[in-house]
Structures are given as structure tokens and as C-alpha cells.
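Dig into what follows:

_____
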Amino acid sequence: MWYGLSSIFASFLNYLLTPYLTHYMSAAVYGEMSLIYAAIPFMNVVYTYGMETTFFRFSNKDHNGRHVYNIGSISLIGTSLLFTSLLLLWRDPLATLLRIEKHPEFVTWAAAIIAIDTLSTLPFAKLRNDGRPRKYAFIKVAGILLNIALVVFFYGILPGYAKAHPASFIAGWYDPSLGAGYYILANLAMSAFTFLLLLPEFFSVRLEWDGKLWKQMIVYSAPLLIVGFGGVINETFDRLMLGWWSPAATEMGKKAEVGIYSACYKLSILITLFVRAFRMGAEPFFFQQARGEDAPKTYARVMDYFVMILCVMFLVVMLYLDIWKEFIRNPQMWVGLSVVPLLLIANMCLGVYYNMAIWYKLSHKTNAGATITIIGAAITLIINYIFIPYYSYMACACATLACYGGMMLISYFWGQKVYPIPYKAGKLLRMFGVMLLVYFFHYIVCQYVNGTGMRLLSGTAFMLIYLGYLFSTQKQELRALPVIGKFIR
């Protein structure tokens, strides 16, 4: 639990930087930063090539954990040096590809971040494998807190101090043209600080080599590399494609559209964090239940509750969007709020997909997961390639919805043939359909109502209507809950 909660908490802290960054950054600068951080996950997949999962697999099955750790670490050190050298060699072409020609140093700093994070991968995995959750959580959270402190310093304190004390040593650090670069530098400092805290684990590596074991590890990790690429395409590649093919007339306009889309994407945080928390707790629970005769029925009941919560969360965001949009402190970015409902529904579909994924894990058909992910990646690429030049970030949002919705449907129909689970599809669709109707009627009301207060009042009324619908139609399921059930008769 420590591992998952610390990661979720660290992600939540990082999300809290969004209001701060959108306050101090223009849409174009925020877009420039988003382009860089859309590319970094691709390189993370290349640099680590599934070695973390491979370490867990080999260290806990028929192999000495220390020996596997040494081989994996040496492999990552060697390949990190190789990949970083290539990135630095191709720095300028990569800067052009990412639309940051004026700041090729950003590529250098990003390469350093990726390399350091890669060297931290197996030390973090070792802490988990050795059962040291508190140190793991401390390092994760401490790194994020340092990152937040530096971002606040670079954007909120340094400019004013440099203006007031232009001749000071600290003022020499400030370069107004650096823009997104300060965020990258803060991230680099976080990565370096995290790595320093992991030095005892890193220096525990012993110089030894086992070519046969290494080949087995690489063979095992190769499919993970492919799946990793598919997952990253589904999650972040749309920002890069938007930067390349946006219909905006100028370079700054293209970056601004990336910034607007990336900022509005953050409003799906509520559902994203819930899905992550669910994955953390659900998978062990599902495997524990697998031996029972009623396991499929249990999985179906979990899906009922899961979809119920997702529907409520969707409405919490959309019915109170006047409040949530303040999370984006730059009002110029609010023009992109039309993507929010599409992205929320897309992440709902992704959550349902993760919930249903138990079928191929229990039936030992994990290649099905890879196949579905690759199909999703193909959907993302095709839709974005065709429609971004005409519809900009709306095409990205629709592609995300089509991708995750398609993955969900494929998993459902495929899974029912391999490992049938009695999901109450009709009931789930009714919950979802009523949710959409409630949002639609609220949207219509808001077209004729002026004033934030009246829109919030409308949202509250429609939320109560939906909650009343849930209590009246899902009373039996709600009674079974440990806390809420006591108040339902």
C-alpha cells in the first residue's frame, strides 16, 4: 500500500503545480514544456526497456535476487551511456523535431533527467523487493517537494529578486527567455536529489556478468518494450502530433494550442487518480478472489461500484466546471474547456478497461493486453493524423476517447469468450446514459443562465437528481457497502 499511495500522493502534489505554472506561463510556453514532457516518456521506455518488471520476475522466480539486480543494473548503466550519447549527438535535430530550436539545451537537460531516472529505476525496485516501503515513499515524496520548492523559486521569487537586485549573484541566474527551461531544471534537480538518496542501493551493485541470464532477461523484456511504446502513444503522443500538425498559422500558435490542450487535460485528475488508486488495490484483491467459486460474480459487483463512482466523479467535474476551471489560472486557456467532457469519458473507459483486464491475467493470455494496447495506439495515430490539421486539439480529445473506448469494447467482447464474467451491462449503460442526460440538461440550462452562482445552483440540483436516481435504482448494492449501507433502508 505504501508504494501505491506514495506514488499517487507524489503525482497529486505534482498536479498541484498546474495552477502555479498556468499563472506564470503563457499558453505557448506551457505548450513548449508539454511538448518536451510528451517526448520524455518515449525515451523512458527506450532507456528502461522493461527492466524493472523483468527484475521482479527473475528475482522472485528461480534466480538469486542479488545476481539479477547486478546484471540488470550493469545493463542499464551501459545502455544509458549509449542512449545519452546518441541524444546529445542528435541534440539539434531533436530540438527541431520538438519545436524548441531556440533552446537545444532543453534536450541536453531532458537527456540528463532520463538517464538519472533510469539509474534510479532498479534501486527503487530493490527497495520494493526488499520490503522497505517507508524509504521508498520518503524518497518519492521528498523529490516532489524539492521540485515544487524550486518551481516556486524560479517562477515566483527569482524574477522579482533579479529585478530588485540586478547586480546580485543570484540575479545572474535569471534569464527571462528561458521560459519552460526553469521547470526542466527543477525536474533535473529533483532527479539528481532522488538519485543521491538512492546511492546506498546503487553502490550495492557488484561487477559481475552472466550473458545467458542477460539474454533471458532481454527476451522477457522485449514485449514489454512494445507494450510500453503503445501505452505512451495512447497517453502522450497526441501532444507531439498536435505540435506538428496543428492548423494554427504560426509556430507560437501551435505551441499555444498544445499548452491549452495539456492544461485542460489536467482537469481529468479526479478520475485519473481514482483509477490509479483502484489499480493499486484491485489487482491483489482480484487475484486473491480468483480461487473462489464466486470470483466472476465478485468481479461483476466490483464493476458496478466502480462505474457508479466514475459517473459521480464525471458529474462532480462537469456540473461544477466553473470551479474546476480555476485550477487553470490563465483564463486564455479556458477556450479549450470543450475537451474536458471527452477526456473525462475517455479516462472512464480506460478505468473500465483496467477493471476488465483481469480476464487475460487470470487466463494467462497476457499477449491479449499487448494486442489491445497496440490496437489502441493505431486508433490514436490514425485519427490524429487525419483530423488534427482540421480540428486541432478537439481531434486529440476525440482520438483519446476512441482509443480508450475501443480498448474497453475489445477487452469486453474478447474477455467474455475466454473468461466469462456476468457484468450487468444493461445496468451499467443505464447509469452512464442517465449521467450523460443529466450533464446534457445542465449544459442546456447554462446556455440560458448568466452568472456563476446560478450555474452552480443548477449543477447542484442536477447532482441531487442523479444521486437520487442512484439511491433509488442501486439501493441493494449500496446497502452492502460497509459504511454507507448503515444509512440506507
